[in-house]
Fold:
Amino acid sequence: MKLYTSFGPNPAVVTAFLAEKRQALETVRLDITRAESGQPSFMQKNPAGTVPLLELDDGTYIAESLAICEYLDEVLPGPGSLIGDSAVARAQTRMWLRRLDLHIIQPSSYGRRYAEGIEFCKNFRQVIPQAANDFKLMAAQGIKWLDVQMGASKYICGDRVTLADILLYVFVEFGNVNGQPIDPSIPWLSRWRVLMAGHRLAKVLHCDLPSYAAAVA
Amino acid sequence: MKLYTSFGPNPAVVTAFLAEKRQALETVRLDITRAESGQPSFMQKNPAGTVPLLELDDGTYIAESLAICEYLDEVLPGPGSLIGDSAVARAQTRMWLRRLDLHIIQPSSYGRRYAEGIEFCKNFRQVIPQAANDFKLMAAQGIKWLDVQMGASKYICGDRVTLADILLYVFVEFGNVNGQPIDPSIPWLSRWRVLMAGHRLAKVLHCDLPSYAAAVA
Structure:
């Protein structure tokens, strides 16, 4: 297998997932600031032009970070599943992945793409600058809603760390250096960030953040 | 198991999925126009206040239509998986689910909620009316992009019908009666809609569409 990756939160989700699985893959790093993912040679591999992209040994391509992580969770060895070890556990992880995505990750991404990231994003996506502030507000409200739901829970799905924690951690930390600073007064989020910072994934993620902040500045 | 449902596209995804699996569940139908899903008794079950919601026999709740479908696919008998029979097949279905969601379903939903659906949605969601037209345009462009990718493919993931087809079919048909009419000049979509109309899911879906169109009018 070969992983096409770059900087930014979506590739970082897969990188962080692999770190937490204690696994490594052969990696090809693209410079998306030079639009390498939009070149015909890459668009043949992934017509959506997005990284990360996983190339299987038989030439099959799997795009989209959450689909890649689900696949890697099934096929890689490692110290246990990061989705869940039973149908119910997997369902709860996927429910939370979806809630995070709808209430926090997508609004936060729209907020970034239509404001700080607009000069970069307008080259290859439709942008809606008049919606940027509303989406940032929606993401901030989503975080507050999550905080209430989590109460005393250790991780998002109870005592087990899952892809849901990885997804949220990556986007929250990237947002923090790029226009959506973390509100330190949110109690569950603050405790959970300390916990997550002790995981292996935090090391690979925090290596990437300074170069990300510089590239988007 | 017990399924809490209502009208509208998200509940219809699970209903259509069950029809295609040739399965039925005990169902509780909520009137979301009377905000029954926002009542404290329901919010205790699902603090996001959304339907569909699946109640398991041990009292566990699973929300979010895609998470519910993944769970039902794992635990129900039926004529084969609608996600995939191998890790690669499942990854391809999930990749397409994600692409559909990002490029078509979410933009289309925002377009509807912030325009035709705004009087209803503003009671329980933040709305961004100044973004409605741009999101409708984004969804329409997403459909055109998909059309090019599909070429001569029978279903979205080749010869097998999957949850990706169900998701797209439900949202396209609901959009068609509610402010996002289907462009009949799109070749793959037109062929695929004829094919999908012959599936069991189409019968349950089209029963729901007139009442939906009336309720949102």
Notes: Chain B has a mean pLDDT of 93.
